[in-house]
């Protein structure tokens, strides 16, 4: 008994040595009868070839064990689904596919999007399995043909090439040297004490002595661009072992464009929407946040735009979920989540330091007041009045001082009169500075002649 993997279910089958392809054809025929019940004619060749192509291409796609057992059924179903109208076949059915409905639907969608749509083979041409493309092939003229993106165009091998006067002069000089025997080893031995030089073909600047190399300085206006394009077959790589001082051949990897790195200073609209959706911000509120972001983003060009995005999302979240943030530790948790999902590469302390600055920018905008009325109710009004009174007290209380401070904020000032520092070290520093200032003022008042 021999073990063989069935192409239909990929399960090992125990069969006799007299097994032939008839059993396999019988199984495939049964699959077509399950998918196309009532169809008595011969299976069209285009349908069978397309089904085989889908099955071969789908082998790179892993499926679950249930879906894997019905892989060929689903491939035949997808092929019939795509071709039944053009080939005059009945509507394919999926009732006899040996798979659970939910698993089958998921596998069909995955095969349809990742295999069938990628094949996209025209109906007029026979469907074949995808094979690895050949790098080059010879035409009847003997010209190597390849992809234009991988190999530069080169002139025909047997076609006459255009030559400039300088090129013809070099060829004539080379012929004279050959006639005089200057390029032969016997000519070198005529001179006593002559040094054996490497052959001309070993020079990195002239790989092929029969094909003079042309530089941009030797170009004639009558020459075409094809004369300056070397064929890869006539330009062998120069080995470093021959000359340590010769420049190395540029690697083909240098032509591969480098991957564009993500700019941490810029926030794209798509990233902002995903960032807001992560914290379940409503769609209407996200639109308002985008308007505020576009209005204030110029103020954060030097520091990056992610501090502004984090501050806007945090300002909207704390008003929508103000009851949740009253619980112990919830504010710290939400700030940690914002720091986790941001892409600006900021530290948690640096990001949190901008929350108050962004709050001063948007505290009087309409969407902020709307969120406080919708989600916070009367408590939002009390909180607004309290924050407004504290803000006026820090800025001076007068309308002129408040207007001056708001103008500084609009111009992008990060430190204004609204910022208040209450740490113990700053209080001690302020007390020492105040005592020194009062002492100097008293000394000057007693002796006005001294400066």
Automatic annotation (TrEMBL):
Residues 33-113 form the ORC6 first cyclin-like domain. GO terms for cellular component: nuclear origin of replication recognition complex. GO terms for molecular function: DNA binding. Residues 136-149, 231-256 have a biased composition (Low complexity). GO terms for biological process: DNA replication. InterPro entries: ORC6_cyclin_first, ORC6_fun. Keywords: DNA replication, DNA-binding, Nucleus. Residues 122-131 have a biased composition (Polar residues). Belongs to the ORC6 family. This is ORC6 first cyclin-like domain-containing protein.
């Amino acid at each position: 008994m021999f073990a063989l993997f069935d192409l239909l279910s990929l399960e090992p089958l125990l069969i006799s040595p007299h097994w032939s392809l008839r059993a396999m054809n019988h199984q495939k025929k049964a699959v077509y009868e399950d998918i196309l019940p009532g169809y008595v004619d011969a299976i069209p060749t285009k349908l069978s070839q397309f089904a085989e192509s889908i099955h071969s291409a789908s082998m790179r796609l892993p499926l679950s064990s249930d879906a894997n057992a019905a892989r060929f059924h689903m491939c035949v179903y997808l092929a019939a689904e795509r071709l039944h109208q053009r080939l005059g076949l009945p509507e394919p059915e999926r009732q006899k596919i040996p798979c659970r409905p939910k698993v089958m639907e998921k596998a069909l969608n995955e095969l349809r999007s990742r295999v069938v749509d990628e094949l996209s083979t025209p109906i007029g041409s026979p469907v074949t399995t995808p094979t690895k493309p050949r790098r080059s092939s010879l035409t009847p003229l003997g010209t190597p043909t390849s992809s234009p993106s991988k190999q530069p165009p080169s002139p025909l091998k047997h076609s006459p090439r255009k030559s400039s006067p300088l090129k013809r002069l070099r060829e004539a000089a080379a012929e004279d040297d050959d006639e005089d025997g200057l390029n032969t080893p016997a000519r070198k031995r005529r001179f006593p004490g002559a040094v054996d030089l490497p052959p001309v073909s070993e020079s990195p600047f002239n790989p092929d002595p029969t094909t003079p190399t042309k530089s941009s300085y030797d170009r004639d206006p009558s020459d075409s661009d094809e004369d300056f394009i070397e064929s890869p077959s006539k330009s062998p790589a120069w080995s470093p072992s021959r000359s340590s001082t010769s420049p190395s051949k540029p690697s083909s990897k240098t032509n591969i464009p480098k991957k564009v790195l993500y700019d941490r200073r810029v926030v794209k609209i798509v990233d902002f929407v995903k960032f807001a959706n992560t914290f379940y911000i409503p769609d209407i509120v996200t639109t308002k946040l985008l308007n505020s972001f576009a209005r204030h983003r110029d103020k954060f060009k030097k520091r990056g735009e992610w501090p502004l995005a984090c501050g806007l999302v945090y300002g909207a979240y704390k008003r929508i979920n103000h009851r949740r943030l009253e619980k112990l530790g919830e504010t710290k948790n939400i700030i940690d989540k914002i720091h986790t999902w941001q892409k600006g590469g900021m530290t948690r302390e640096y990001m949190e330091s901008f929350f108050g600055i962004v709050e001063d920018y948007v505290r009087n905008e309409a969407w902020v007041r709307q969120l406080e009325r919708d989600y916070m109710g009367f408590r939002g009004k009390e909180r607004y009045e309290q924050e407004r009174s504290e803000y006026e007290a820090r800025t001076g209380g007068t309308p002129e001082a408040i207007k001056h401070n708001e103008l500084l904020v609009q111009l992008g000032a990060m430190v204004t009169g609204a910022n208040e520092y209450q740490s113990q070290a700053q209080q001690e520093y302020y007390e020492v500075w105040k005592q020194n200032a009062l002492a100097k003022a008293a000394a000057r008042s007693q002796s006005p002649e001294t400066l």
